[in-house]
Amino acid sequence: AKANGKNQWKRYEEATHAALLRRMQIRVDLDEALRTGAFLLEYQPVIDLKTGVTAGFEALVRWHHPSRGTIAPAEFIDVAEESGLIVPLGEWILNRAIAEAASWAKASATPPYVGVNVSARQLRQPGFVDTVLTSLRRHGLAPDRLVIEITESLLLTDQGNGWSDLRTLREAGVRVAIDDFGTGYSSLSYLRQVPADILKIERSFIGNTPHSDKQRALVDGIVRLATTLDLAVVAEGIEQPAERDVLAKVGCRYGQGYLFSPPLDSDSATRWLQRDWI
Ligand code: C2E
Ligand code: CA
Ligand code: CA
């Protein structure tokens, strides 16, 4: 048993060592990737559950690594945060997403919004508000066609500068979404004050709704609370028709998930919109 424990420990050490090396390598490669333009955005439709119309798209970053193929954001966003590279990367993402949304707007009477994920370091960066407003102006996108997505946990920890920047952006017409809601233990008084327009219910709350009365009651409560506070609600990670039906029934207006569509590349998103208009 002792030898077994030792082996396990060794395996554990090797695994953490490998993980550390991988992170270091990612950090080096990220610099290069930003210079060579190896990032791209995909766009996942957000659907109006009442009408089936596409209300917006969430922009999700992808990294095309020369030897490792496509790397998911979960693997590099926190490394980019640590190294500060998230600031130039985030600026690129914001500009790219805004340019894309401007092209949708040219082709539609009721253009979809674009949702952009913004991380802690980016929000705290001096000049963040300016970066956003300048990009909107440069691409000629109406401010209300941009939604800034901030996680609930970040909003909880950053009530100083972050909140005032978000207030300024909202005064200019930009909308703010509370991302991953349900994971951050927000209090009621906090929710009443938070500078936001949209609440996105985290995926883990959605999956069990068709099978669990408790889970359904919980989601029902979140939707009522949000509605009372004038927040529009988006349910994340809808994979089953039964989940969509439960959410529509409790009054959740918007949904996102593989049931409707996975994240799409730029061309497919444009085609998706054309299909919508027929
Ligand atoms: P998120 O903001 O919660 O984004 C939703 C994630 O759920 C995306 O993963 C999306 O592909 C995935 N998803 C969508 N529908 C379904 C579904 O029906 N089932 C399941 N199982 N998953 C679904 P992705 O693209 O890997 O992104 C992961 C996280 O990385 C994002 O979570 C976000 O926190 C972060 N991220 C992605 N793009 C960016 C970005 O441009 N900037 C920053 N700062 N973070 C980003
Ligand atoms: Ca998000
Ligand atoms: Ca989310």
Automatic annotation (TrEMBL):
Domain EAL residues, every copy: 23-277
Superkingdom of source: Bacteria
Name of this chain's protein: PAS domain S-box-containing protein/diguanylate cyclase (GGDEF)-like protein
Species of the source: Asanoa ferruginea
